[in-house]
Amino acid sequence: MLMAVLLCVLALVVDHYLGEPRKAHPLVAFGWLAGRLERLVNPSARTDSNAQGQIGRGALAVLVLVLPPTLLALWVSHWLVGPVLWVVELIVLYFALGRRSLRDHARAVVLPLQAGELDVARDALARMVSRDVAALDENGISRAATESVLENGSDAVVASLFWFLLAGIPGVILHRLVNTLDAMWGYRNPRFRGFGRFVAKLDDALAYWPARLTALAYTVSGKIRPALGCWRTQAAQWDSPNAGPVMASGAGALKLGLGGPTPYHGQWQDRPRLGVWAVNGPSVSTDSALRALRLLDRALMIILALAFGGAALWHWSMVGA
């Protein structure tokens, strides 16, 4: 267990210095394969008139894409031992983590935003979120980037560490592939409402405890009282059972205002308000996304310290026995 915690730290260090590979990232290849399979078994002409068929095809597609890599990881974990296994685990965990990517994306939005270059900031934001960035002003750009950092801090960083510590590389691979498919298929439109339902529910289940661990770590890492209050009173209003606690606690910990009016697919949606809103609007600034990133870093240190303490206690209890 102590070795697992050390591998988490090493993977974060490698990710910090190397970032995502510019070429041949396994998740890029997986996404391409998933896109090809989806177009084959779920042509865009089909709609909810055959909802049950869509759900079945979506579930089958998830199993075809996710089961083989997960079973291969189980085999590797069973047959490899010692330093060879540790190297494989380090590589897999490095590919699964997205901390450096979050930093790079956030900086690409914040720096031009602070320089008043809104068009450049919008272009960078479009690589982080799915909303209509052309309709966003300075405030909306900052809110969107901050929300993305807080939510992906759970999905792309904490959850990978959580599942590695709990289930090794099979757990990491299962969660990361399901989360990738949810990002591709988890839309509530005619094409994916049925097809993506299975993977959306599976992703919710896998993210349940990592999201709450993240929310707790955000709370302890920031303004505790506002974070707890926002988590308790606002999280349930959010559509996602996992993003709600994460973003409500994060917004409260930073004393920011998130959520609110947001453009999607040509229409403005008035989402629930999270965190602390000022009288005339949300309390955000141009550097809010970077503040969220620093909150994530403090949360990671707390999580890793707790994991190390738990692993050390377990090790000493085994030695004493």
Automatic annotation (TrEMBL):
The main place the protein resides is membrane
Membrane topology note: Multi-pass membrane protein
From the record, give the transmembrane residue ranges. Answer: 72-97, 299-317
Q: Does the keyword Nucleus apply?
A: no
User: Is the keyword Signal in the record?
Assistant: no
Q: In which pathway does it act?
A: Cofactor biosynthesis; adenosylcobalamin biosynthesis
Q: Which UniProt keywords apply?
A: Cell membrane, Cobalamin biosynthesis, Ligase, Membrane, Transmembrane, Transmembrane helix
Pfam families for this protein: CobD_Cbib
Question: Where does the protein end up?
Answer: Cell membrane
Q: Which GO terms describe its molecular function?
A: adenosylcobinamide-phosphate synthase activity
Q: NCBIfam families, alphabetically?
A: cobal_cbiB (TIGR00380)
Which HAMAP family does the record match to this protein?
CobD_CbiB
Q: Which family does it belong to?
A: Belongs to the CobD/CbiB family.
Q: What does this protein do?
A: Converts cobyric acid to cobinamide by the addition of aminopropanol on the F carboxylic group.
| Name of the protein this chain belongs to | Cobalamin biosynthesis protein CobD
Species: Natronospira proteinivora
